[in-house]
Amino acid sequence: MKILSGKELAKIETEKLKKELEDMQLVRKPILSIVQVGDNPASNKYIAAKLRKCEEVGIEGRLHKFKETISQNGLLKKLDIINEESDGIIIQLPLPDHIPTQVILDAVPFEKDVDGLTSRNEFKLYNDSDQKYFVPATARAVLEIMDHYNVNYKENVKVCVVGRSHVVGKPLAHIIKKQGADVATFNERTGVKGVESGDVVIVAIGVANHIKAENIKEGAVVIDVGTNLDGNLSKELYGDVDFESVKEKASAITPVPGGVGPMTVVCLLKNLVDAIK
User: Fold this and answer.
1) DSSP code for 28
2) What range(s) does the Tetrahydrofolate dehydrogenase/cyclohydrolase catalytic domain occupy (predicted)?
3) Which pLDDT tens digit goes with each residue over 22-46?
4) Among all residues, which ones are annotated catalytic?
5) How many domains does the chain fold into?
6) Which end of the chain has fewer surrounding CB within 10 Å, N or C?
7) Numbered residues of the known binding site for NADP(+)
8) Helices (H) and strands (E) in the chain, counts
9) CATH of the domain at 85
10) pTM, to two decimals
11) By C-alpha distance, which of 180, 179, 181 is closest to 198?
12) Is 10 contained in some domain?
């Protein structure tokens, strides 16, 4: 069984990204603005990782943090100001219930939508536009991991995607299907019966240890996108896949932590560099 280490790949891609930025000889560092509303502990952790990676590669990361009580209009006005000083903008999710998420996402200019979550970006992605669009960072991370480790997800292969989020499952299913694979999608409503037919299984459903050995066929490649805290003081991370049981049947698997997560941050910054080209 082979471990598909996103952590190791992220080191390689980080160095490439640093070199690319140096070669561009920009007059100033690119600016990535992160907009956060409230003080979600998980969000704080993800943001810290993004800011560290920005500093490492030579990007100026700026955190704009607002109280949870800010109004929709108040946040939109702040975004207008942030837009003037930014090359890329990400809205850290989730937002409070009183703020409609898509309205705020769509307030990010398309050309600065490095998370790939605006309606305009999604339209281009799902309508196979020849024009530039951004692949959401987590979906891009999964694709780059599979490419690096020579995982066949394109021809004469069945790919099962568990989860249909706009960030991971839905764009991945669309992109992989375009490559010629036989793609089947699953979610909490459909259940996971049939996942065991997949040569490649990508799991992003947000439920710890949801996929067991019985759901995986012998020799399958398993990509675990999940990051779930155990809720105890140890704060240990668990994937959506029961790693200990599945590793006995899979031919290759991404670990959690150290799998898709590290590459997601790198791919976000790759999207930023693409935005300024």
Assistant:
1) S
2) 4-115
3) 999 999 999 999 999 999 988 998 9
4) 50, 92, 115
5) 2
6) C
7) 163-165, 227
8) 9, 11
9) 3.40.50.10860
10) 0.94
11) 181
12) no
